[in-house]
Design a protein that fits this description.
The chain has 206 residues and is mainly alpha-helical. Helix content is 52%, strand content 10%. The strands form 2 sheets. It has a 3-stranded antiparallel beta sheet with strand order 1-2-3, with helices on one face. Strand 4 and strand 5 form a beta hairpin. Helix 4 packs across helix 7. The radius of gyration is 18 Å and the shape is globular.
Length: 206
C-alpha cells in the first residue's frame, strides 16, 4: 500500500494537487506512510479538498490490513463509473472508529451516516460487525459509540448486540489508544506524538 500511495501521490501532484499544510512531509518515504492512513490534498480554492486513503483504519496499518475489507466490499456506481464500497458492517465500524478521533470541527455527521447505513440494511450482519471489532481491537470505541447512538436517535441496535459488545474483552492498549486519539491538537506535544507512534507500533506488534 505504501508504494501504491506514493505512486498515486505522484500522479496527483502532476495534475496540480499538493498535500494540505501539515498533511505530509516535503519528502515522502514508504516508511512514513506505514504510520498514517491518509492525507489531504488541495489544488485550488475552486476545487474541493481531496482525501486520499491507502488504509481504512488508523488502527490497522499492516500491509494486509484491508485485504478482507476488499473481499467483502460491494459494487457501487458513481455516475457512470463503477467502484467498490465497504460492506454495511465494515462501513459502520469505520464510521464509529473515525468519529471517535478528535477533530477541530466536531464530526456530528457520523450519527446521520450511521443511521443511514443501518436504515438501508434490513438484514445487518451484526456477527461480522462484532468479529471485526474484536479482530481490529476497536471494542472499547464501540462500547462508547453504539449505546450513545441508540440513546440519541433510537438507532436499530438490538439489546443482544449491546450485551455481546459489553461482554467482549477490552485491552489496556485500547484504553490507552483512546486517550491518545481523543486529545486535541492544541494539547499535542512531542511526547504525545511519540505516544501516538509508539501506540501504533504496539498495536501492529501484537
Amino acid at each position: 500500500p505504501a508504494n501504491i500511495a506514493i505512486e498515486a501521490l505522484g500522479r496527483l501532484r502532476n495534475d496540480g494537487w499538493k498535500p494540505a499544510a501539515g498533511s505530509l512531509p516535503r519528502r515522502i518515504k514508504p516508511q512514513y506512510l506505514l504510520a498514517v492512513k491518509a492525507c489531504n490534498l488541495v489544488r485550488s480554492k475552486a476545487d474541493p479538498e481531496l482525501d486520499l486513503h491507502w488504509h481504512v483504519f488508523q488502527e490497522c496499518l499492516e500491509p494486509d490490513s484491508d485485504t478482507d475489507l476488499w473481499e467483502r466490499s460491494v459494487a457501487v456506481a458513481c455516475g457512470e463509473v463503477a467502484s467498490r464500497a465497504l460492506s454495511p458492517p465494515d462501513q459502520l465500524l469505520h464510521i464509529c472508529a473515525h468519529a471517535m478521533e478528535w477533530n477541530a470541527i466536531a464530526p456530528v455527521r457520523w450519527v446521520a451516516d450511521a443511521v443511514a447505513v443501518l436504515s438501508n440494511t434490513p438484514h445487518f450482519d451484526w456477527d461480522s460487525f462484532l468479529q471485526q471489532a474484536l479482530r481490529r481491537r476497536i471494542v472499547y470505541t464501540l462500547q462508547i459509540m453504539l449505546p450513545y447512538l441508540r440513546n440519541l436517535v433510537a438507532a436499530p441496535i438490538p439489546d443482544a448486540v449491546l450485551q455481546q459488545l459489553r461482554d467482549l474483552p477490552v485491552t489496556q492498549g485500547e484504553r490507552d489508544w483512546m486517550k491518545i486519539r481523543t486529545r486535541g491538537i492544541s494539547r499535542l506535544t512531542v511526547r504525545t506524538l511519540f505516544e501516538v507512534r509508539y501506540g501504533l507500533y504496539k498495536r501492529s506488534a501484537l
